[in-house]
Amino acid sequence: MKILHFDSLESTNKYCELLDPQSLEEFTVVCAHKQTAGKGQRGNTWFSEPYKNLTFSVILNPTFIAAADQYNLTMCLALAVAETIDLYCGKKRAQIKWPNDIYVDGKKICGILTSSSISNGYLSQSICGIGLNVNQTIFPDWIPNPTSIKLLTNKDTDTNKVLESFLSNLQRLYLVTKNDAEAIKKSYLGRLYRLDKTARYKYIGKEIEATIRGIDQFGHLRLEHNGKEIVCALKEVMFL
Ligand code: BTN
Fold first, then answer.
1. Could you tell which of 8, 13, 134 is best to mutate to test the pocket of ligand 1, judged by most ligand atoms within 8 Å of the CB?
2. Which in 23, 157, 171, 220 has the greatest CB count within 10 A?
3. What is the mean pLDDT of residues 197-216?
4. Average pLDDT for residues 199-218, to the nearest whole number?
5. Please, what is the angle between helix 181-190 and helix 71-88, to 10°?
């Protein structure tokens, strides 16, 4: 496994996107101490204090995952991060806020941004970008609800050790995804934030009270509202 370390990059995801896919071995990691234009979900920027956290991308070739099942990869990555955080944060179990934010104590500790190319109905290459808050303790006001390993443990943690733990969890869970995707789904649901809890959501512009009941085969969120099931895609629902 190759780990390429950079002091500064615009974005580790972008760096990987610009490389020739053939030149990259599976599990190659591109890691930067500092990103000048880190990318987040929904076109947001990812802010991370330089030298304090982990910002990296892993290249995968999940050719065993059909395009229709790409949520299996989302679950695998989220679980690999959640299990890694558990190793460093003691009793506080990491949860997964659908689809793939990692939360501890109701606060976001990690975000994941994956882009995949598809060939003949299967995934061919995925660039899996991970921003994990490790030693940062002060966050700008505009970041909603952040936390970090240090805020949770009051200790500094070696970012390289966290990266190593993550990669070994990922290698193990990637094999499980290949051989037993149902087991991955079960573990994912076991960590799903607000599962079976009633809370407020904005669904297609309207505030509703609903209960998460799980996900469907495509990874859409299943909400129960007034005794009926609503199946939501990412852009249709917001957690309030
Ligand atoms: C989110 O918005 O929750 C996803 C954040 C993903 C951030 C990571 S940091 C490393 C990689 N490179 C990027 O530009 N983004 C991802």
1. 13
2. 220
3. 96
4. 95
5. 50
pTM exceeding 0.70: yes
Q: In whole angstroms, what is the distance from residue 3 CA to residue 132 CA?
A: 17
> How far apart (Å, rounded) are the C-alpha atoms in residues 196 and 212?
5
pLDDT (mean) for 143-157: 96
Residue 106 to residue 238: CA distance in whole angstroms: 15
| Strand 198-203 versus strand 122-132 pairing type | unpaired
Strands (E), 184-236: 198-203, 206-215, 221-225, 228-232
Atom of ligand 1 nearest to the CA of 44: 2
CA 16 to chain centroid: 17
Q: Please give the Cα distance from 240 to 234 (Å, whole number).
A: 14
**Index of the ligand 1 atom closest to the CA of residue 37:** 14
| Cβ contacts of 154-158, under 8 Å, gap ≥ 24 | 157/88
CA 14 / ligand 1 centre spacing (Å): 10
H/E stretch holding 30? strand 29-35
The predicted pLDDT at position 141 comes to: 95
Q: Is the separation of the CB atoms in 85 and 102 below 8 Å?
A: yes
- HSE, CB side, 13 Å, CA atoms: give it for residue 214: 8
Q: Whose CA is nearest to atom 2 of ligand 1?
A: 40
> Is residue 136 lining ligand 1, measured as CB closer than 6 Å?
no
